[in-house]
Amino acid sequence: MRHLFYSIVFWLLVSSLGYSQEQFIVKNKKGTDKIEFKLINNLIVIPLEINGVTLSFLVDTGVSKPIVFNFLNISDSLKIKNPQSILLRGLGEGEPINAFRSRNNVFRIGAVVNNNQDLYAIHDSDINFSSKLGMPIHGIIGFDLFKDLVVEINYKRQFLKLTNPGKEVNKPCRTCEEFVLEFYNNKPYIMGEVEIDKKRIPVKMLMDSGGSDALWLFENKKEGIVVSDYYFNDFLGHGLSGSVYGKRSKIKAFYLKNFAIKNPNVAFPDSTSIGHVLSHKERHGSIAAGVLKRFNLIFNYRKATVILKKNSFFKAPFGYNKSGIELAHDGVQFVKEAGYFVSHTAPKVNQKLENSTQTEFNSSYKLTLKPVYSIVELRANSPADKAGLQIGDRILSINNKRAYRFTLQKLTEFFYGDHGTRIKLKIERDGSIFVCNFNLEDVLNNKKGLKP
Length: 452
Hints:
single chain; mainly beta; Cathepsin D, subunit A, domain 1; Pdz3 Domain; 6 helices; 31 strands; about 5% helix
């Protein structure tokens, strides 16, 4: 099974704003509740209710306060009270964005309730991560949930276990590793090591469940954190303040105590895209969900610890998009589909039939809404670029299969195939339809043609 490492980043650089008077509490007799989640491109999506309205939220350990995206004007339904205008800055090369802060909101996640929760709502309707994931995403939640509860993330079975402090059961685990958490602006960091040029270098890394890559490293020649001779420039993800670009490469290994993760993919973001991140001088990068999903984790912020236990994803190979195409959901279209209906009628007069009825098969058509997928990013000199594809092209079919029959995640999986895999795309551009063919190129593992 191939695992996607889709390039979306949800880091928000919101400073610590203190604690609310209320907190998240599991309100049942056991003091614990299990919440099933969807794993979309390595990212955790849970149902979360705000002021009686059920929404879909990302769980992101790299964010401080809950964020609501207002692209559907959902803040009106949430009955947000007494908003205060503020500016938020996220990753990307753009400017800070307008938002407003609201207090005294009721949050509910299963049996977990907070009756007095702050949130931030973003005005800009263009900030919409739903199109990048192919499903509605209404917001992000992180620190405020983790600070109040013991949070277990089971990536393999896809559930969160939320437990009131003091109610957790500490089972002996010989194969687990426990780490001390350090916090900066309400974000959790742990120590690890990277192996580059046969040297093991200690690194302080943000634990970021909201980034779907494997690892991010910040170049630092003085400490030996440098890109290898073999890399390619690429689009890395979307931040609140714009797109993030950088280099993609690999390193020999990444170590978390006794856990050795061999040949992981690594992204080295451009400094212009992450300038505000670099204000934390001791930070060397991030452990994103492409690595985190290889473990089941138990976070206990009050004790400043996290326990890691590797799961069946641990040895899965690291893949990446070998086409150079980034797709997004681009609305819906009506599709004409054939339907067949069976009708039973009585035989005509004087018609000699052994049975008292006859069966007729009638064909008709129905119109149904189907998703549209378009190219939103295109890597220069990639197979897709060389084949003549352009940003804005609509994908009609892939390898002779209608594109709308796939989810965005399943459609993108075609681009994570083996080196040399043939891809055939039928494209619509400005009303014209044509076909493009290209072969996937694994430039990181096949060094031929890769420019050092």
